[in-house]
Amino acid sequence: MVTQVTRGIKITVSTSFEGTFFKNYKMHYAFGYWITIENQSKDSVQLVSRHWDILDSLNDVEFVDGEGVIGKKPVIKPGESHTYNSGCLLASPIGAMKGYFNVVNFTTTKKFKVIVPTFRLNAPFAIN
């Protein structure tokens, strides 16, 4: 589990290996991740978009940008949190993800980036 706080918004990430399967004549490794966004600030915020850098040990990097998270743009009041889970496919059993959420502060109406720290995606059989 990894954690990071940006401007009073705490991000906590945990991961799991979900299995392997063939797709388009290639082996793929499936990973799940759970992200909790906790508002420790004094202002309500809304998550409006996300950016991901998805890396695998074969040196492939995929960049993903999109609105919200899993189809939602949650408003998170002070002291509250929002948790969601998603997943990704890698071409290798070892990789990582990092990124950020674009968030709007409802009090100041200013947008800022909340950093999602690098989290590892490792299949258990690939690690000593």
UniProtKB/TrEMBL annotation:
<dbReference type="InterPro" id="IPR036767">
    <property type="entry name" value="ApaG_sf"/>
</dbReference>
<protein>
    <submittedName>
        <fullName>Co2+/Mg2+ efflux protein ApaG</fullName>
    </submittedName>
</protein>
<feature type="domain" description="ApaG">
    <location>
        <begin position="3"/>
        <end position="128"/>
    </location>
</feature>
<dbReference type="Pfam" id="PF04379">
    <property type="entry name" value="DUF525"/>
</dbReference>
<dbReference type="InterPro" id="IPR007474">
    <property type="entry name" value="ApaG_domain"/>
</dbReference>
<dbReference type="GO" id="GO:0070987">
    <property type="term" value="P:error-free translesion synthesis"/>
</dbReference>
